[in-house]
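Example S7 (structure tokens).
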């Protein structure tokens, strides 16, 4: 058995999950990755005319457990 781990954005989770079901993989674990509770610091761009606050999208970690003979599918 092998374990495959991938980090994906929110938009990619469902399509990849559906394709893995079609392939008949074993277990599938989806975990949401936290970015912390404090908001990111503001960044002053240029000569102080603009303020940029970084926005991070949600990230998810998918872990798949499969047999070695299914690895190349």
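Recovered sequence:
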């Amino acid at each position: 058995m092998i374990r495959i781990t991938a980090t994906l954005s929110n938009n990619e989770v469902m399509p990849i999950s559906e394709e893995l079901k079609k392939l008949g993989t074993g277990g599938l674990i989806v975990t949401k990755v936290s970015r912390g509770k404090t908001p990111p610091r503001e960044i002053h761009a240029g000569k102080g005319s603009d303020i940029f606050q970084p926005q991070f999208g949600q990230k998810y970690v998918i872990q798949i457990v499969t047999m070695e003979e299914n690895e190349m599918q």
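Notes on this example. The helical segments are 10-23.
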